[in-house]
């Protein structure tokens, strides 16, 4: 359905296939110009609060006014975003060619940067509630995660380890990454069921990160010694010990130690 309408405060020109726009009125607060073939946008009004330019052919955005609260620029050809105003609450910039994001405004509550070329995220502001960043090349998440974060989607990235999850989290999607996680089979089931207690999940993350830090430190040999000592404490048969005496810890081999020797949370958290 096509639509074209303009008032003193709102501008609608949707699904008309146009390639250019005339200058905007300085009184506009809302601009909706999605689903066209726009390559550029005119200078934006200084009072603008909502800009929806989704599904065009934009390769860059004009300077964003300080008054802007909502930015929808998904499904374009953007390789970067301009400086983000401090009043922004929502950003949807998915399905572009973004390689990095600018510093996020302190007021931001929702960010969707899915389906881009991001290798990392900027520092996340503490007010962020929803973060969608699947289908990128992100290798790690900024720490700490925002205190009020409720939904986190990092599906199909290159994330190798996780920071602790905030207390308010109630949805977490993380398939198709390179996570080295203690008791991974147990961990992965959390995605498919309702999660009632993220304390268990955080315990798993903490254990894994402890191992990781030890492995990449000068104490890695000490870690192997402690593990073998704890295995002996559990009275595993000598032949099993001999067969696995040369196991050196690597983050993606924790599950083998658990399966073979029956290590549990209590043993690992004592390290």
Fold blueprint:
Layout: E1 3-6, E2 10-14, E3 30-32, E4 50-52, E5 70-72, E6 90-92, E7 110-112, E8 130-132, E9 151-153, E10 171-173, H1 184-188, H2 198-215, H3 220-233, H4 238-243, H5 254-261, H6 265-269
Parallel strand pairs: 2-3, 3-4, 4-5, 5-6, 6-7, 7-8, 8-9, 9-10
Antiparallel strand pairs: 1-2
In short:
The protein is an alpha/beta fold and 271 residues long. Helices cover 21% and strands 12% of the residues.
Structural commentary:
This protein has 271 residues and is α/β, with parallel strands linked by helices. It has a domain at 181-271. The chain is 21% helix and 12% strand. It has helices spanning 184-188, 198-215, 220-233, 238-243, 254-261, 265-269; strands spanning 3-6, 10-14, 30-32, 50-52, 70-72, 90-92, 110-112, 130-132, 151-153, 171-173. It has a ten-stranded mixed sheet with strand order 1-2-3-4-5-6-7-8-9-10, with no helix packed on it. A hairpin with a 3-residue loop joins β1 (3-6) and β2.
How many E strands?
Answer: 10
Strand content: 5-15%
Rg estimate, integer Å: 24 Å
Instruction: Name the helix and strand elements from N-terminus to C-terminus, one letter apiece.
Output: EEEEEEEEEEHHHHHH
Q: Which spans of ≥5 residues are poorly predicted at pLDDT below 50?
A: 183-194, 235-252, 258-271
SSE class? alpha/beta
Number of helices: 6
Shape: elongated
Average pLDDT works out at: 80
- Gap from first CA to last CA: 63 Å
User: Main sheet: which strands, in order across?
Assistant: 1-2-3-4-5-6-7-8-9-10
Query: What kind of sheet is the major sheet?
Result: 10 strands, mixed
Percent helix among the residues? 10-25%
